[in-house]
Amino acid sequence: SGSLIEQLTTEKYECMVCCEVVRIVAPVWSCQNCYHVFHLNCIKKWARSPASQAEDGNSGWRCPACQNASVQVPKTYTCFCGKVHNPEWNRNEIPHSCGELCGKKRQCLDCPHLCNILCHPGPCPSCPAFVTKTCECGQTSHSVRCGQSTKIHCSNVCGNTLNCGKHSCTQVCHAGKCSPCQLTVQQVCYCGSNFKEVLCGSKEEFSDGFGSFSCQNICGKKLNCGRHNCKQVCHPQPCQLCPRLPQVVYRCPCGQTPLSKLLELGCVERKICTDPIPSCGKTCGKPLSCGSYEFIHTCESLCHEGDCRPCSHTSNIYCRCGFKKKDFGGLFFFLIAAITFMCDKRCNKKRSCGRHKCNEVCCVDTEHKCSLVCGRKLNCGLHRCEEPCHRGSCQTCWQTSFDELTCYCGESVIYPPVPCGTQPPECKRTCTRPHDCDHPVYHSCHSEEKCPPCTYLTQKWCMGKHEFTSFLTFFCTLTYEQLGTDQFVKSRFRLLNVGDCSPCLTCCPSFQSLSLHPYIPFQKFVLPQMKSTTLFFRIAAISIATKLTDLQLGDSVEISRLITKKEMKQARLQCDEECLALQRNRRLAEALEIDDNSDPFNIRSSGPKYSDLLKEDARKDIKFVSDVEKEMRMLVEAVNKGKHAKKSHCYPPMNRDHRRIIHELAQVYGIESVSYDNEPKRNVVITAVKGKSVCPSNTLTSVLDKEMQSRPAPPLLRYKQTDKSSGNSGLSKPLKEEPVIDYFDVQD
């Protein structure tokens, strides 16, 4: 508050919106959260601007200083306490204040007193009044400042009643609720055979009069008959009546015959629970637990009391995967086999990763999740994937370096965090690594350990040791007159790496002749076939090496002299009959002064030209070609007559030959064609463009029909006419001449 008052009085306070000084007489607005002061007009403009709106869009506008959201836009100029509108400036008062008591509620929630200083900017000071407050336990009281927010604690024991309602708190005066009671009490189960200790006041302490919890053992209490014990699990309610009492049992042990009928037949009436229950003499027939859903096994003994005897039948038990089954007899063996029986078949299905097989014995898993670790190298090339084996590509390496990654010379830097596998940055400075030679370096800084070969041209002796030149592979430039015949020839052979000059080489017919010098007494030297080929490539390399300096300066080098005429001839395509026809037509057009763009003989508009391969494919499937042409013609007519500039049609997936037919026909119709998707669902989409796509005068099917009509018909079978003198007026057997087969027949 003091700093705000000083800056406003000396006109040194700046508005955060317009960055101008807040004058003494200018209308202002003060934020009630951060107490910043703004020009009233500036804050109005800011509140209406889109930049001031809160992120959720419903909380109003944000303060430029503290970002506190407000719903209402300030409209009037008020003093700091808000009592006076448009306050007048008084030289003896704080600027923009009313000069009266502030009277605003202080920020402390417990303080009931209002601010008692004059109207001021900034927060109200703490309350100076003294009040009496009690400690946390309420046993003592103290006189403290009203604005003091600290809690008062005494040194007495709390003594408040705990949650159990039986014991008191033993802690020293503390804030908040007392902690739960930590004393333990002993509880007994419902049957009275087991005990346990629980916290006092907890939910487990509840008791219904019979006990507090169930021990999950057999109750064992005496029933009301006084002769039998309760066989139920430890329970809270009273035990049930004895199940063998005469007033409870109404049927025989198997349950098929009422006891009233047995009494009529002469059975003795039961008086107490220990008397035997009369048997009806029928087969028991109670279902046993060893059967299956398809076939239920029943007890085959006569009506009896107690448990049934073991089953005498055998049961079919399938392994857990259902591949094999076995026969077991008896309930005990049936239950054990149902738990442990597994076949030896190994699962051949792929696991979820798609790489490994399941290989589990008697597998019942449906997902077949792979439990192995992936282990493939990540994109960084340094670490391996530690996730469970999975399909698809591994995730990027999650390891990150927090060290700077620099080039070799340290000029280019990548600042952390640097993902694992990041290559060093490119650097345009010249390489500063130590080199084997002292020549100038022309390559840039690189991350590879080994530098590229040196490209600087040095001066060395020629092959003949005659002069100092600047070639990578060197020729001797001394003339024949300066050396003499033998020395000149030997220097040449030393260059060609053939060896000493020998007269016997001139007699070998398997050598090629090579002219070296016009003044040598004999005009030809002989070289082997391999040596002459090697020589040519060495000469070519030498000529290119001499131009390396020009290449480094950015100039071009002519290498046509290094290529033989034979190689130049082999590098060109041979002209075919169509090329010769074009040359002949061009010469005729120049002689007759005919423009290339003119068409005097109506050649270009005579009709489309279909390739022989397209015709051959069309003859194999004429119906497919007819449907394709019909669809293309309809598409071209629709786009030329309609308003749209383009129209497309998508064909269903088809094989490669059919797609090739569509692409070739699309070129004839001037239609764009593109293939999409992968095999076997690859299809073709054609697009007709207005003004570019046209329907040809002759379709491919009509051209094939005309060719069929112009082709001569196959010869008929010829029959020999018998001589009239022979007496046979009929026709003889046909000649053994094979009929002509038209392989272009498309009726099949």
Short overview:
It contains 14 helices and 23 strands. With 748 residues, the protein is an alpha+beta fold. Its main location: nucleus.
Amino- and carboxy-terminal Cα gap = 105 Å
The order of strands across the largest sheet is 19-21-20
Q: How would you characterize the largest beta sheet?
A: 3 strands, antiparallel
Number of strands: 23
Considering DSSP H and I runs of 4 or more, what fraction of the residues is helical? Answer: 10-25%
Overall 3D shape: flat
If you average the pLDDT, what whole number results?
Answer: 76
The count of helical stretches stands at: 14
Strand content: 5-15%
Spans of at least 5 consecutive residues whose pLDDT stays below 50 are 471-533, 602-606, 715-748
Main location: nucleus
Subcellular location: Nucleus
GO cellular component, one term: nucleus
Domain R3H: 622-690
Question: Would you mind describing this structure in some detail?
Answer:
It is a single chain. With 748 residues, this protein is α+β, with helices and mostly antiparallel strands. Among the domains are: 1-125, no CATH class; 612-703, R3H-like domain (Ribosomal Protein S8, Chain: A, domain 1, 2-Layer Sandwich). It contains 14 helices and 23 strands. It has helices spanning 2-9, 40-48, 259-264, 331-340, 480-483, 485-495, 529-545, 548-552, 565-570, 577-592, 612-620, 622-641, 656-669, 700-710, and strands at residues 28-30, 37-39, 61-62, 69-70, 130-134, 141-145, 184-188, 195-199, 314-318, 325-329, 400-401, 405-406, 413-414, 418-419, 460-461, 468-469, 512-515, 524-527, 646-650, 672-676, 683-689, 719-721, 731-734. It has a three-stranded antiparallel β-sheet. It has a two-stranded antiparallel ribbon with strand order 1-2. Helix 12 (622-641) packs parallel to helix 13. 12% of the residues are buried.
